[in-house]
């Protein structure tokens, strides 16, 4: 079975960090995502998706993201069935965030200064909400560069031709 959700959109409001009685950090954010509903993709509708982040991910989101920030979320779909005050059965869906990443630039969202590239949940500096739940700082570069590996050779190329230089490609 597979339960993986990947979303990219903008925060609808500033995140608010809360703590459970056991002092576990949690924040629930709502992101606006576009969904094409025609074959051509020209007609789009905006969906508003609730996302819950826990522990260090919640602290990271509440510290570095603000209303209008572009965010990428990878997590799983969580279904909550409950009965409301009137006795009606209800279902609520939200995404439990495992990884979050910056997307785009702050210049796009109007807050100035940041040019994307950092990723929390993958990439050079990474954070994943699984396992020990600890932020991992990227390792410092080595003082001396490692010797270059020999060029990869796949052996006999048979009927394949060598590709022209990149400057000769038509695109």
Could you outline the blueprint of secondary structure elements for this entry?
Layout lengths: L4 E7 L6 E2 L5 E12 L7 E11 H10 L5 E14 L5 E14 L3 H4 L9 E2 L51
Subunit structure: Homotetramer.
GO molecular function: single-stranded DNA binding
Keywords: DNA damage, DNA recombination, DNA repair, DNA replication, DNA-binding
What can you tell me about this protein's structure?
It is a single chain. This protein has 2 helices and 7 strands, in the order ββββαββαβ. It has 171 residues and is mainly beta. The chain is extended. The longest helix is centred in the middle third of the chain and has 10 residues.
Number of helices: 2
Q: Tell me the name of the CATH class of the domain at 5-120.
A: Mainly Beta
N-end to C-end Cα span: 41 Å
Which percent range describes the beta-strand content?
35-45%
Largest sheet: 5 strands, mixed, barrel
Kindly report the spatial arrangement of strands forming the biggest sheet: 1-3-4-6-5
Which structural class should the secondary elements be placed in? Answer: mainly beta
Q: Which shape, going by the Cα principal axes?
A: extended
Tell me the Rg in angstroms: 22 Å
Stated plainly, the CATH topology of the domain at 5-120 is called OB fold (Dihydrolipoamide Acetyltransferase, E2P)
Low-confidence stretches: 109-127, 131-142
SSE topology string: EEEEHEEHE
Task: Write out the CATH superfamily name of the domain at 5-120.
Answer: Nucleic acid-binding proteins
């Amino acid at each position: 079975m597979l339960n993986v959700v990947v979303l990219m959109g903008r925060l609808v409001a500033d995140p608010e960090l809360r703590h459970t009685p056991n002092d576990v950090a949690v924040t629930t954010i709502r992101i606006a995502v576009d969904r094409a509903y025609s074959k051509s993709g020209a007609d789009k509708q905006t969906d508003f998706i609730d996302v819950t982040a826990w522990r260090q991910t919640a602290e990271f989101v509440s510290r570095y993201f603000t209303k209008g920030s572009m965010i990428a979320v990878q997590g799983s779909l969580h279904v909550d069935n409950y009965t409301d005050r009137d006795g009606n059965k209800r279902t609520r869906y939200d995404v439990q965030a495992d990884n979050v990443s910056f997307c785009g630039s702050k210049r796009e969202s109007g807050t100035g200064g940041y040019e994307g590239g950092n990723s929390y949940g993958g990439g050079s500096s990474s954070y994943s909400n699984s396992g020990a739940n600890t932020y991992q700082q990227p390792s410092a570069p080595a003082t001396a560069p490692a010797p270059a590996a020999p060029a990869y050779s796949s052996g006999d190329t048979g009927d394949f031709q060598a590709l022209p230089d990149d400057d000769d490609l038509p695109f």
